[in-house]
């Protein structure tokens, strides 16, 4: 990657906190020091105070952290609250009642605004509709929707009645949806006829119908369908109901059900190095506290901000920083429905000017793509409303950082490069805009209460600067995942086993510089990062092998100037298919991956080969394939290779 240790090691620029920003920040240097001290001295008191101060409880908690079943930690477990109450109802008092909670712009340019009072009403109507369809506390509800206000309303309605939502990104295929419906055993699926994407319709309901075929092992009894694109669809009698009909006779009064702090709020699937994506689940109170606090600290959200996180609600970024974090803070959240460059490359900048957006949170892949389009697009618009910029998903290469800071931020906005994961619930390592100087390419320091460390192979702390190692978290935090849905053993194995359950192992490597700033160095497992989204190589490989012509496949990442990483697949064909047309097969395999996972998993490069390089014990030599895919000279030890001739065939000669 362009953000490899070599390019960032030479990065020495530092941008101090602008004085006028520091003066008005939610968190200043003095508070930061005090919070860090409290967290170190008495973590229970630190977290307990924050949870009491920032959340409204139906039943106050006495216990802060329970660690007797560690690493199955429990936070505030004897307390009760409702997440939707905290995100909506509590802002109905006073002036915020009629402030905009959501400002939405459709891809076609339509604009809709929902005040907190209106959001409160819509959420209750839909919560009653869910109840009417038989949804009870603890039931799972799947949401497969476009980026429209109803997606947010559906999530909050679930939270209000204690249903556990699982949002499936609208770009995922029918097959991916099917897997998630099976794994969660969701009773209700909420979808739309279609979604707008670059002027075209993504047929969500048709995908849903394919996922819901009777022979599949799902438990869906009811499908609620929002009309968005007007696409012709099949409505199955007795199963499918329009959103409008489901809410028509409902009352707009649905009390928020107090939930135990540890009751799951949602399940969200994310890729790992083996098998199918795993269902990470989060708690109600601890998750809400962490998404809320990090929004307040890292984005410095204020009542007068218009805040925009460009992520889809199908990702954790959309959960924590489109919905729960900003709404818990009573912010005005901007939502955009469609494709970033539609109808032309200035769509983002036009919307920032049109809506007076003051905080923008997006991903390096988008920044690089805009950068490539040229400065004339942002220059056409007045971006002076912006006061803070954020980034997430992968390391920001210093070039992209500088462009974001100068061309978009006019050199005056602090940049928050936030490191975190689906599992962490919220930001973990990030600069605080009123406290921490920015270094382009670094995500700066752990947030108060977060104990991030770098350890070596043996699990010893690495204290020397600029020495890479495993990134681990050695103390629990309220926003941490509570497990893998239905698979506690996998939770232990995946995140805790590597160092005897002593640390949460993130799966990233990192180094710290002499100022203790963290610099992320990428994944240490077989997980790829394509456009800021996590993809397991095993997942893509199994999609390829599912094709009748394929005997074996191995997928590796290669650097890509916009996506960060792109996929390169090495494919071995079954004997009787070896004469097949390679171009046609390549196209068929790409289509197959799109169908089984989604377009983001489509390999850019497919190379056919007779065998894969394996060790004598039969393990695929991935590192070797990675070098081959990148066109590098082979420096790895290939003496364990089963068949040295394979290297010639893969188009590279071993360096002697
Ligand atoms: C992985 C988590 C958390 C929302 C986005 C993706 C990488 C994320 C950064 C960053 C360097 C980053 C890590 C991490 N990552 N943010 N600011 N700098 N790397 O969530 O799909 O759970 O992926 O994304 O490798 O482990 P996710």
UniProtKB/TrEMBL annotation:
Entry binding sites for ATP: 393-395, 417-422, 508, 523, 534
A single BP term in Gene Ontology: acetyl-CoA biosynthetic process from acetate
Record-listed N6-acetyllysine modification sites: 619
Keywords for this protein: Acetylation, ATP-binding, Ligase, Magnesium, Metal-binding, Nucleotide-binding
Residues where Mg(2+) binds: 545, 547, 550
EC numbers, comma separated: 6.2.1.1
UniProt GO cellular component terms: cytosol
Family to which this protein belongs: Belongs to the ATP-dependent AMP-binding enzyme family.
Name under which the protein is recorded: Acetyl-coenzyme A synthetase
Species this protein is from: Acidithiobacillus ferrianus
Gene behind the chain: acs
